[in-house]
Automatic annotation (TrEMBL):
Enzyme Commission code(s) on record: 3.6.5.4
One GO biological process term: SRP-dependent cotranslational protein targeting to membrane
Protein name, as recorded: Signal recognition particle receptor FtsY
Major localisation: membrane
Entry's family note: Belongs to the GTP-binding SRP family. FtsY subfamily.
Annotated source species: Pseudooceanicola antarcticus
Length: 383
């Protein structure tokens, strides 16, 4: 599974942090339990814990980008006995390696103290308090008193993370109406321009005609950068005189895209900090003006979030949702960050679709969001 291994490699920092933490938790209480895994073999499969309530999924639109492989997600609780002997031996962390393979994997009894350590680890991995508590409660449901190895805990955690992420894993919907207007918003440097370039390239490859509008009319460098991405993707970039009204550029771009029969119009916007009221009002104006041309537009408002900002991503979603009708998220810079856990918190709290994730700076470094792959990469589970 090429994509999975690529994602796993790139999420190494998140998974290594979690993995080291899990190793330490089990190691802490494993002394007396090491080598006692055969006692685990008779464990009944735990009851499937109740999934927390989530917002209803929107109607499934026609999807152009590859849909995530949600059908691959296992529905049943894992067979712990089997996990202990097979998977536990395969990759394991430091503890598994020290203690050898299979049956000799150290285990720790799941009690309140261990649960608390797990909660703290997940909070430190940027999942946020509420989500960490919910995830650990579900992991523990029906399993208190059982002896678990690191690999088993990873598997349970991955299963819970998958459960949280599954409802939000949706490719960018493609509508019949053209031009489909995709407004791209986010704070400075979150990766809007790069993401537009990557998306434009993928849509072009899928046979769609795309036009990009350079909505950051104040920064010449931003326009230049977008033009570079336009060239890479083979897509025209519409721009206006420096300092002109971005709302009027957006309107002109809609007229042009319609004239040219474009399938998609992607509008880049200036990066704006949540606390800059003037910039936030400018964004509302762009939306109002776009709607004069097409009351159903923008058809998608993508909020681009930088994974390295960790928990701050939550407040960005809150602010941008108030101003623009955010319809979906793209999380960039998941490569090389130890803060991948924030994606779980976002999914748990807002239930907004995650259309794609950025895993690098190159044009093809935008992957569809696959919850199972993500959960496995985050927890450091072996293939
Ligand atoms: N490693 C990594 N870098 C990324 C990713 N996406 C974007 N970047 C980098 O992040 C930096 C900012 O990206 P931009 O696309 O310019 O961000 P922006 O939101 O358009 O920035 P402003 O126009 O200043 O608001 C650039 O150096 C990109 O190469 C990603 O997925 N991974």
């Amino acid at each position: 599974m090429a994509l999975f291994s690529k994602l796993k490699d790139r999420l190494f920092k998140s998974s290594s942090r979690l993995e080291a933490g899990l190793d330490a938790i089990v190691e802490e209480g494993a002394g007396a339990e090491a080598g006692a895994s055969s006692e685990n073999a008779g464990l009944a499969a735990p009851e499937t814990p109740a999934a927390p309530e989530r917002p209803a999924a929107p109607e499934a639109p026609v999807a152009d980008l590859p849909a995530p492989g949600s059908e691959e997600v296992p529905a049943a609780a894992p067979d712990l006995a089997q996990l202990g002997t097979q998977e536990g031996a395969r990759s394991g962390g430091l503890v598994s390696r020290l203690f050898g393979r299979g049956d000799s994997a150290p285990r720790r009894v799941l009690d309140d103290e261990m649960l608390e350590s797990l909660e703290e680890l997940l909070i430190a991995s940027d999942m946020g308090v509420d989500t960490a508590l919910r995830v650990t409660a579900n992991m523990a449901a029906g399993r208190m008193g059982q002896k678990l190895s690191v690999e088993e805990i990873k598997r349970l955690l991955a299963e819970e993370v998958t459960r949280v992420m599954e409802p939000v894993a949706r490719p960018l919907p493609i509508f019949q109406k053209t031009p489909q207007v995709v407004l791209v918003v986010g704070v400075n440097g979150s990766g809007k321009t790069t993401t537009i370039g990557k998306l434009a390239s993928q849509f072009r490859a899928a046979g769609k005609s795309v036009v990009i509008a350079a909505g950051d009319t104040f920064r010449a460098a931003a326009v230049e950068q977008l033009e570079v991405w336009g060239q890479r993707a083979g897509v025209p970039v519409l721009k206006a005189a420096q300092g002109s009204d971005p709302a009027s550029l957006a309107f002109d771009a809609m007229v042009k895209a319609e004239e040219e029969g474009a399938d998609l119009l992607m509008i880049d916007t200036a990066g704006r900090l949540q606390n800059r009221q003037d910039l936030m009002e400018e964004l509302s104006k762009i939306v109002r003006v776009i709607r004069k041309k097409d009351p159903t537009a923008p058809h998608n408002t993508l909020l681009v979030l930088d994974a390295t900002t960790g928990q701050n991503a939550l407040s960005q979603v809150e602010t941008f949702r108030k101003l623009a009708d955010v319809s979906g998220l793209v999380m960039t810079k998941l490569d090389g960050t130890a803060k991948g856990g924030v994606l779980v918190a976002l999914a748990d709290k807002f239930g907004l679709p995650i259309h794609a994730i950025g895993v690098g700076e190159q044009i093809d470094d935008l992957a569809p969001f696959d919850p199972e792959d993500f959960a496995r990469a985050l927890t450091g589970l072996s293939d």
